[in-house]
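Hi D.,

Good news: the full-assembly prediction came through. Inputs first.
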Amino acid sequence: MTSTDNQPANLNRPEGAQVKREERLAAPNRPTGRPGSSAHPLAAALKDSVIAALLVAVLGFFFFAIRTEIAPGGLDVTTRWMLWIVSILVVFFGRLLIQVFILDEQSRGLKIAVSAALVAALTAIFVINSSPGDRIGSVIFGVLIGLAAVGLVAAFAHFRGNEKAASSIAVPGLGKWLGRALFVFALVLPFFFTYFFPARDRQFIDLAILIMTYIMLGWGLNIVVGLAGLLDLGYVAFYAVGAYSFALLSTHYEFIGFWVALPLAGILAAFWGVILGFPVLRLRGDYLAIVTLAFGEIIRVVLLNWYQFTGGPDGISGIPKPTLFGLEFKRGEGGFADFFGMDYDSIQRFIFLYYIIFVLAILTNIITMRLRKMPIGRAWEALREDEIACRSLGINTTNTKLTAFATGAMFGGFAGSFFATRQGFISPESFTFLESAIILAIVVLGGLGSQIGVVIASVAMIGGIELLRNLDFLQAVFGTGFDPTQYRMLIFGLAMVLIMVWKPRGLVSSREPSAVYKEKKTIGADMVAQGEGH
Amino acid sequence: MMTDVTSMPAQGGTLSSWDDDPVLTVEHLTMRFGGLVAVNDLSFNVGRGDITALIGPNGAGKTTVFNCVTGFYKPTEGRIVMRHGRNVPESLIASVTNSGEQHHHEDGSGVFLLERMPDFMISRRAKVARTFQNIRLFAGMTVLENLLVAQHNPLMVASNFTIGGLIGLPGYKKSRAESIDKAVYWMEQVRLIDRADDPAGDLPYGAQRRLEIARAMCTDPHLLCLDEPAAGLNPRESAELNELLQFIRQKHGTSILLIEHDMGVVMQISDHIVVLDYGEKISDGDAEFVRNDPKVIAAYLGVEDEEEVEEVLEEDAALAAGKSVGEAPGEDSPERPLGTTQTDVTGDESGPVPKSAELDPIPPAAAASAAALGEPADGPAADAAQTPMAGALSTARDGRPDKLTRISGIGPVNEHKLNAHGIFHFDQIAAWTAEDVKQAESYLAFDGRIAREDWVGQARQLAAGEDTEFSRREDRKTSPRDPNGKGGAK
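Then the structure:
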């Protein structure tokens, strides 16, 4: 095929920060990076870092160094000089590292020198902060943390340097293998945790259930936002409809258990998807986003205020747990453990819940992948590319949009009823706009339309937030008065901003064609339209 | 798969052949935007099998007429009637109009009142397809996907509105394979088969125009509306476009309505020209009539400059004549006024064209475009069908031809063409000299491709029983046209 040399040349058009870097690389006097700067390559980088550190010094003086506290008899000024100095140093070395490794690629010797300085400084900070008897430990800790930071930046720089090669050659195969590896890991995940982390298995499996729920929600929303290109800011409404459908049905009618209510909840959510679909059919762009946002809020406010029906802010409790063909996960006679002659363990119920959401999520994925290759899925994508062209080809855009909303909503409804049965209690508090925003962030961060991207983004976002709860080691850097959990969301937000600067179209931004004649070629993100409201 | 040829183009008969058997009738069409009258009381006919051009200065309301015909605008007043089948009685049209229905159809014939139908129904039921002035392709989808989207409606029915397809019913698989065959057919006609898996947005401009036409044709239209199809094309590309339009009209019996600014193209290919100015029709007739109509000249260049107008039009005519030399073998007097010759030319061409495109060893579009590329008229391109290629055999040895598609660059169509010329085996291609390659290229209408893809080298390897990387991939495929690439090149 001639096609190999017909590969889209602009598959990896530089975006964001990469543009800047390539401009610099293209500049004639490469070592110094900037024309007219001083002769020594380090000087420019140092100057830049000093300016950044000074900025932090000025700003941080009021935020970190001085603190007023209410004391008996008036306000009392306390100082936290250590925190102030450390934050200045962190910014100084961070900026220097970025300068040396990423922005102005410097010589090897300089990189080593800067890295050594950083490691030394970090070690010194640890040593000063630690108690006298703990010096050796803190030296090791400081060196390790310093090397880790340098390694991270170097790896980032290296990866960016190889990005062209990596994304055009390795990624297609990599995506497939990554998907398979993740699938196998997800399949054995509960046993992996019960075997290797018996003390914390409940916590980890619970987290896995949560991540899996968000993966399913992300995949559901991906149909609407990623494939059909309709920005939906109120997706949580369908999650809520699913959850309340199941909760109300099961608490009012004895005979309706989880497995009966699950399809009903999906159908009801799909119905509400169509209800939402109608008013937004004619809307485009920002207006579409605003109306879907309003819809999400309307559902929540109705749930909150219709006290007789939904219990209002009290919520609904006593939602039955799912059973395995009638076997309940309970202690004693007639339970799951008793039936199979095992010892009762509360973890069994969590493992069962995990597999329910795992199967539901995989089902969502399989159906979505199949739909993409059906005429309707292709029409969704065509709708995202050009609605007017769709109509000129005889595609009923009204029905096409409504099916996208209904299908996405149905999966949201499934996930909602799972949420209800897992929690055993639901209230409108669980269905705030923040949930919609997180699901949308997962889809956008993963890359619109990408299924594996949603998985990576869910693990990073939901897992990442949880991981950031365990930041006690930062106390060693900033002193014992520092409460890392307070900075959890700050760090998380910063990470998201960085990812979007690095990959503006999400982690997996290329598109796989739904039909192949001779040779499958992934389509670069710059070709693919983003639909309405982006 | 294709629309049968229901009618041949009107032979150069009476002036008003389009009035005898119109496929589309626009009656008293008026379109107002607030106080602005974009189109005022416009009536015209589009003849069955004709190429009808709608011309006029900028802002004359041409695109508005298009948007009314294709349902993107609802006209303020007027009736737009689309007829399927010959001789639809006026009484039927009147009764449909009075009944308040949108359309009426029974086996083979139908009446569609386009002003009453929503846009997507016009494409789906009345079979009117269109392209856009500013190309509207699905840029992030591949060429193949673009053509599959165009076959959405039959595929939806075949997949039982997704349900049957989702659970994998065999009926859907069959029609999916058919839809890919159809897409492949059109990709071959517009010479995009080699770029089937590239995103449409990556194609060069001329190829995008061709793809848009192919996509419209995938909806099996009875009437194809083209909004400035030659805009932005170079002379060679617009000559190719002419060939493509002639091919569509002759092989598929599709009537064509086009808006065009390029007078060379218009005068050369149109059977019937309607001229608009300020939303009103100022002239209606064949090219000769329109070209000499003083109202048209006045509208285009102002009343005072009649002398200049003549000059400009002469130049256009000369240009068009120069272009048409290659594809009008019957024409012996290029200085003849163009408008009068056009019907004759098409008449000449429609004679030797075989009825079935499938069996035709050289699609006329390909052969003629090779000629239009500046090959000498008596060169290999013109008589390739008669001259056997080097080392040609009458049949394959032992009746077992080699699978030529194992050579990278040879698809099923080229294999077919080569077989038609007695090339059945790898060793035949392996023995090609540079001269032979040139001859084959000119007749397959590929300039330089055979050498670039090294067919000869590949054939040598394959003839010796070795495998190339491509042939191994090709052999692994269970079916080369499997759309999901299952078992394909993974």
